[in-house]
Amino acid sequence: MSESRTTADFWFDPLCPWAWLTSRWMLEVEKVRPVDVRWHVMSLAVLNEDKLDEVPAEYREMLETQAWGPVRVVIAAQQLHGDDVVGPLYTALGTRFHNKGEGPTPTAIREALEDVGLPVSLAEYADKDTYDAELRASHHEGISKVGQEVGTPVIAVPGPDGEQIAFFGPVVTPAPKGEEAAKLWDGTLMVASIPGFYEIKRTRTQGPVFD
């Protein structure tokens, strides 16, 4: 009898380097545990739109000038070409934004679309609100599972009773591989499944490491 598989729903904003590292860890988890990742967009711009006066000026500028475009392109691709394109497009965008250091430029977005065989014309949705309702719905689905005080990524998995358990993170660098990826997955699920457990945290002493 084949081992039963678990679906892990993963909400991301392609702009976030920490979510990117967690997503690369999840691809490793797929190799070492019976887990299938299902990708969804969430939006740092939506998350922070009512808190712009409270965030640092540099972060506010990023939210206002860079954060809408990439998620709008991903949600447009999903709406027009199906759920299966979300993961590959995220990989293409993240590789260019983070690993290659290109950032969320219009050129990087167009070339990421080319990388996965999607129409370059989808890049035009970066400046359109055509699918903002769908973007907000996807964002709300993820963030409602964990609350407004966190960011991206959000991961949700079936709990022991069949109800989803969800959590923000884990925040880790570099992305663990092999047995280390498996250990982190097992431990994360263990603590996340405890009723009343909310947080483990320590000060970051290292920036994102992309490999």
TrEMBL record:
It holds the Pfam family Rv2466c-like. It comes from the Bacteria. InterPro entries: Rv2466c-like, Thioredoxin-like_sf. SUPFAM superfamilies: Thioredoxin-like. This is DsbA family protein. The lineage of its organism: Bacteria, Bacillati, Actinomycetota, Actinomycetes, Kitasatosporales.
